[in-house]
Specification:
CATH topology of chain B: Beta Polymerase, domain 2
Radius of gyration of chain B: 23 Å
Oligomer: heterodimer
Helix content of chain B: 25-40%
Strand content of chain B: 15-25%
Largest sheet of chain A: 6 strands, mixed
Number of domains of chain B: 1
Number of helices of chain A: 4
Strand order of the largest sheet of chain B: 3-9-5-6-7-8
Strand order of the largest sheet of chain A: 5-12-8-9-10-11
CATH architecture of chain B: 2-Layer Sandwich
Structural class of chain B: alpha+beta
Chain lengths: ~200, ~200
């Protein structure tokens, strides 16, 4: 019996010990463990970040898209990022939301106004990342684009409705991403580029 | 007898191994896959009505409250697809602010014009709040937590008078103005720059 009793006592002690770190974990429940994103990649000329004034961007966009009614360019200066880093931040943001809300995958439709929150989260994560690494005064050009579906694009039908996309300006020009279908395209090839009604950075 | 001894010894070894597995903290598998542990607020808790259902208010009601206090108020912006906004419990708002302060401390980011300024502090908190609302299963609404632009004339929460972006939150206890850079908050009627709130955003 002695041989049986001693390991049982040891096991009981161990169980008590395991409860202590378990308690610590319970307190830490409100944290998210996520893979850190790759370092920011901004476009620089002669070691200085390539910056554009917000007002200049606004005028350029108005000239290029006469259908554009609403443009929000909140910051004074903006910087260009690499296409690769745009994609990295996009995937990181998707991963962040999915880890927080895994139920989204099983939903028929995304939450109301999902794209706005996604764009806000993505652009601010990118800015936070740049602010930590570089001493530069400028915001990344990641935002929300609204366009009327007058032309089909892959899985998206031309139904005349207004649709929201994620837009980023990179060294290769603009990139447009559609969250529900996961489609991505260069701005100059975007089928509804003549029906853009709003851009918010 | 010898067999029992061996079995006991094996059982103890297995238990020890399990104990080690449970207690050793999670680590990245390599230098390239560093893991971040980000503080997050607790599960969203809505304020409830007398019948136990969640409390909601409309954007117009929020607009009216701001209009009553600010002579410079121009517009409240919100997505018109959202018909009503869910009111968080006041203690959840406090927890949200604590978690956000811990997150900022962890990132150790310093304010920097354009790149990381007052608007960024507000927008990130706003977006994180919405993700927490989704996590709680509220997919067709937003919390009554937003951000606003104020042409501040008086110093408040350690920030000098200037054009400034900061947060607001409506709970069952009332309407509060929040400084997201340090978590300080005050009732709207006690906020020294309430007359100079110009625009508010509920997204």
């Amino acid at each position: 019996m002695k041989h049986i009793q001693s390991p049982i006592i040891i096991m009981l002690c161990m169980m008590l010990l395991t409860l202590c770190p378990g308690h610590v974990r319970a307190q830490k429940n409100n944290s998210l463990v996520i893979k850190s994103g790759p370092p920011p990649e901004i476009i620089a000329i002669d070691g200085k970040a390539k910056l554009l004034y917000g007002e200049f961007i606004r005028r350029q966009l108005q000239k290029k898209h006469p259908t554009l009614k609403k443009i929000v360019v909140g910051d004074k200066r903006y910087m260009f990022i690499t296409e690769k880093w745009f994609m990295d931040v996009l995937h990181w943001t998707e991963n962040f939301i999915k880890q927080q809300v895994p139920e989204l995958d099983s939903l028929q439709t995304l939450p109301t106004a999902y794209e706005e929150t996604f764009a806000m989260l993505m652009s601010n994560i990118a800015n936070l990342s740049v602010a930590k690494r570089y001493n530069v005064k400028g915001s990344v050009l990641i935002g929300l684009l609204v366009a009327q579906n007058n032309e089909p694009w892959g899985e998206i039908k031309a139904d005349g409705t207004f649709r929201r996309y994620i837009i980023g300006l990179t060294e290769n020009g603009s990139i447009i991403y559609d969250i529900p279908t996961g489609q991505i395209i260069a701005g100059k090839e975007f089928s509804n580029r003549n029906y853009i009604s709003g851009i918010m950075f | 007898m010898k067999l029992i001894k061996i079995c006991n010894w094996l059982l103890s070894v297995c238990f020890l191994f399990l104990l080690i597995l449970l207690t050793v903290p999670k680590m990245g598998v390599s230098g390239e896959e560093q893991l971040l542990e980000l503080p997050m607020p607790s599960e969203f808790m809505p304020a409830v009505q007398t019948d136990g259902s969640p409390q909601y208010i409309t954007a117009e009601e929020i607009k009216n409250i701001i209009q009553q206090h600010s002579r410079e108020f121009k517009e409240l912006h919100w997505n018109k697809e959202i018909k009503r906004f869910i009111v968080p419990r006041h203690d959840w708002l406090e927890h949200l602010l604590e978690a956000y302060a811990a997150l900022l401390k962890k990132t150790n980011v310093q304010a920097k014009a354009d790149t990381w300024d007052c608007e960024n502090y507000s927008e990130l908190l706003n977006a994180l709040t919405t993700v927490r609302i989704w996590k709680a299963g509220y997919y067709d609404t937003r919390a009554t937590i937003g951000w606003m632009r104020v042409d501040a004339k008086e110093e408040w929460a350690g920030l000098p008078p200037m054009m400034h972006a900061l947060m607001f939150g409506v709970t069952e206890d009332g309407f509060f103005v929040i400084e997201p850079q340090n978590g300080e908050y005050v009732r709207l009627k006690e906020y020294p720059n309430r007359q100079f709130i110009q625009e508010a955003y509920l997204f």
